[in-house]
Amino acid sequence: MKFKGTDRYVATEDLMVAVNAAITLERPLLIKGEPGTGKTVLAHEIAKAIGAPLMEWHIKSTTKAQQGLYEYDAVSRLRDSQLGDEKVHDIRNYIKKGKLWESFTAPERPVLLIDEIDKADIEFPNDLLLELDRMQFFVYETGETVVAERRPIVVITSNNEKELPDAFLRRCFFHYIRFPDTETMKEIVEVHFPNVQKDLLREALSVFFEVRETPGLKKKPSTSELLDWLKLLMAEELPVEVLRSRDPAKLIPPLHGALLKNEQDVHLFERLAFLARRERN
Amino acid sequence: MFINFFLQLRDAKLPCSLREYLTLTEALKAGVADYSVEQFYYLARATLVKDEKNIDKFDRVFGQCFNGIEFISEASEAEIPEEWLRKLAELALSEEEKKAIEAMGGFEKLMEELQKRLEEQKKRHQGGSKWIGTAGTSPFGAYGYNPEGVRIGQEGSRNRRAVKVWDKREYQNLDDSIELGTRNIKVALKRLRRFAREGAAEELDLDDTIRSTARNAGLLDIKMRPERHNAVKVLILFDVGGSMDDHIRACEELFSAARGEFKHLEYYYFHNCLYEKLWKDNRRRHSEFKPTFEVMHTYPADYKLVFVGDATMSPYEIAYPGGSVEHWNEEAGQVWMRRMLDVYSKAVWLNPVQEKYWDYTPSVQMMRELMENRMFPLTIAGLEGAMKELTR
Predict the structure, then answer these.
(1) Minimal Cα distance from A181: which residue of B?
(2) Residue A107: other Cβ atoms inside 10 A
């Protein structure tokens, strides 16, 4: 049951080692990296590759650790008691399972994705320490202990908005998805667009990496932006020559809206183009 | 097994604990990595490094620790043609050195010497990503030197990359031990926010009351909570232009972090010292400004006042009327500073200039006295000190 990437996802060797370590030792895997390098997609692909169901827990700034375990719906119990509903006598009717509980009791060993853990409060990871370590927790309302029948494969992604506590980090494997080099990028594009023209791809990639190299960009375009851009280029059926003509006056790549997401960056490019034009005259 | 390696990592100030080391051993026992150095490197990295800024450190230690091991384990695979190495050595070592090495004991020694040179080169050019020595100053003569060149010999072997992964040191620029970083600033600014939520419990907490009542099986259980204080209010005044241009990045980071952290954040700009005018847009500073008096009257005294500036100017700009470099000011800068500080009792000055240089500039001293010593360097530690001062 080794993860080797899928037909839709190119995994580098170091990523494979990290994923396999996490699967074998049943410890959480923490994934960091530039936005758009495929952190979230990784969990989907792991699930697909080993044929396990995927459970997703998307974290927001208001998410509490307890919500991943269970929630006690006191208000509906109160209402039921006023209405004289029979359900009211069993507290278990009002315990709502969270994602973690669901993944603990799933019939098959699932992949649990905890997405963007850094969005939550600073204490959030600490509140999940024991639960992720022992894969068990205690339900106060009913007095039962939920223990994972099979330890789920936990994938956690982070965008580095907050530093994660050391105690939490110690329990995880860590992988930083580096921005792919040209070769890997070619593989990735070919996986997504198998019938892309070779010369279009070559030109597009060189324009793309040039854009990334431009000093002073606020937001560098990443893999997902490149894929969007290529899709556009192919849909518009732009001739390759447009990309190839390195006319300094046309420094802004065609359909730049897919690559540059920030008006300051577009301005920067316009300024550079202007300077280039002036130099020429 | 790898205790030495582990200890060296810790010596290099890489935060890895015993627990992680045990995990690594466990993973090796479980056979996660096969018996190649690269796989071991990846596994060790995933286990022991938990922050991308530490990967570079890890690579360096790994390179030192396991130097040469690869040659032993894969010796049968990687036959290096001798003449290639000789060619390399010719490039790398001068005639006299070569003779000296021959006298020392031939080719084996030569390789060792080469290795030593390599180390030396790495140290001398630390920080550069390619270790290319500049012509003339490099001990290797006019050609310069590049470790990828060392690996020429290995191109002939099957499935071997020219450069070892960890020697590439691709994660170099992620090491952020010097940089301030918005994230760290935010954490430092948090101190202020926490303070804003304290107080006596005098407000009905409806949610909690319902929940507790329900838990009590319908018996009313009233819950109170402290009144939610308005989030802390901050007024930031930035010095712009002139000598502040060097610090623009740090200021930008501070500003963007503060913007995210405080709901009530007001900002204005000034130049060098505070006078009768403040403005919000630097391009239209001469047409759209706000009199300082008006600012003082607009924002109540419970605003916390933060100056950001290097306080580096001529002493006249603080002490005398008409001292400003930009316009004729009727009243001295220090008069305006005192007025401002009289209104806002909670005030600090953040100075992007390093603390050790403060004593050399008289105007910094003067400003510090005006601020009653509440001047802090714009570093994480300084920010924490400043926030503590503001919450006192």
Answers:
(1) B170
(2) 8
